[in-house]
Amino acid sequence: MMDFIVIPILALLAATAVTVARIRNLWAAVMFTGIYSFLSASWMLILDAPDVAFTEAAVGAGITTILMLATLSLTPRRHRKSGRLSSEDFEERPSKSPLFPLLIVTITGCALVYGTFDMPHFGDPNAPIQVYPQPSFVEKSQPDMHGLPNVVTAVLASYRGYDTLGETAVIFTAGIAVLLILRKNTDDQGSSESQSVTGENA
Amino acid sequence: MTDFLGLYNYWIVIFLMMTGFYIVIARENLIKTIIGLNIFQTSVFLLYITMGKVTHGTAPILRESHGGEGHGSEHHGAESHSVEHGQELHAATEGHLDSGVEAVTEIYSNPIPSVLMLTAIVVGIATTALALALVVRIREEYGTIEEDEILEMDRNS
């Protein structure tokens, strides 16, 4: 029964990824990336990871798309003199022969598929990942967390609390770095190029 | 042949991963490269999440067996209470035969990959934002976001 949902989602995931690789228009590519994130969030929900699915849908499909659209609006191909930007301003140039990258990708993919033959099967309850922490976090969190039902939250905020603190530090650092990179230099009135970009920003 | 059918999830992940890898190495456009990195990253999330799945398992959110009376809204409270009562009755009648089995019957998938990937998603958006900021800065300096044109300008200067 579940296969009727899973198989179309996986097929759509693969088709979307290939479309992103093939399409030239960057606006469309960004939109397909959002669709890709949302489809992978759907698969994560089926794979019993609702917390990751929500985060992926909000961050991967939401914030990433917004950031990429903002970047696109700041980086059109030609700088316009007047009038509206057309979709050709966000067109990628046709690239050189794709045969060599395809060869590399195929070889790497075959090596990885060869590596999966030693992996535990999908859903195997005796896989190493399932048996290792012997009183598992699911069993341990019940007395430790005084009845907090969501084990993912318990592990994230309590057992791995320092890691989450470090993650917050990473976000903070990235935010500072973005501000420093994008800061407008007021003292040097740069080239006409940077002025035109500033004009588009306003 | 049936031995390999249980590995299909890894193969799909590898296909998605290689698509992202192809975008990264074959395309000259910087924004397209970042999109490829994003696709690669999401496929790594999927790789971890598929490893945490257990057949017939459910999301690792514990069913409230005890200590659940304190919270819950008014009209939901009564409903859940009656359900809980039913479960307790069930446990009381069957408790003599197989006590303690009830707690074991629920199968949960592994929460640890979910936790790791939650952290990875948030760190991923931070690196993506940084990369996009760098692209905007490069566009201001060079006037283009095509990698070979930028390299040519560097060589000529």
Structure description:
The complex is a heterodimer of chains A (202) and B (157). By secondary structure, chain A is mostly helical. Chain A has helices at 3-22, 26-46, 50-74, 99-116, 128-131, 137-144, 151-159, 161-182, 192-201. Residues 189-202 of chain A have low confidence and may be disordered. Chain B has a domain at 1-57 and 106-157: Helix Hairpins (Orthogonal Bundle), CATH 1.10.287.3510. Helices cover 73% and strands 0% of the residues of chain B. Chain B has helices at residues 2-5, 8-26, 30-52, 74-94, 101-105, 111-142, 147-156. In chain B, α2 runs antiparallel to α3 and α3 (30-52) packs antiparallel against α6. Chain B is elongated, with a radius of gyration of 26 Å. The model of chain B is unreliable at 66-103 (pLDDT under 50). Chains A and B meet through α1, α2, α3, α4 and α6 of A and α2, α3 and α6 of B.
Short summary:
The complex is a heterodimer of chains A (about 200) and B (about 160). Chain A is mostly helical and about 200 residues long. Helices cover about 70% and strands about 0% of the residues of chain A.
Blueprint (SSEs and pairs):
The complex is a heterodimer of chains A (202) and B (157).
Chain A: H1 3-22, H2 26-46, H3 50-74, H4 99-116, H5 128-131, H6 137-144, H7 151-159, H8 161-182, H9 192-201
Chain B: H1 2-5, H2 8-26, H3 30-52, H4 74-94, H5 101-105, H6 111-142, H7 147-156
CATH top level of the domain at 1-57 and 106-157 in chain B?
Mainly Alpha
How many β strands of chain A by DSSP?
0
Percent helix among the residues of chain A? Answer: 55-70%
If you consult CATH, what is the topology of the domain at 1-57 and 106-157 in chain B?
Answer: Helix Hairpins
Main sheet summary of chain A: none
Q: H/E element string of chain B?
A: HHHHHHH
Gyration radius over CA of chain B: 26 Å
* Overall morphology of chain B: elongated
CATH architecture verdict of the domain at 1-57 and 106-157 in chain B: Orthogonal Bundle
- Low-confidence spans of chain A: pLDDT under 50, at least 5 residues? 189-202
Distance between the termini of chain A: 53 Å
The coarse silhouette of chain A is: extended
Share of residues in strands of chain B: under 5%
Gap between N and C termini of chain B: 59 Å
The overall pLDDT of chain B, averaged over residues, is 76
Major pleated sheet of chain B: none
Helix content of chain B: over 70%
Total of DSSP H or I helical runs spanning 4+ residues of chain B = 7
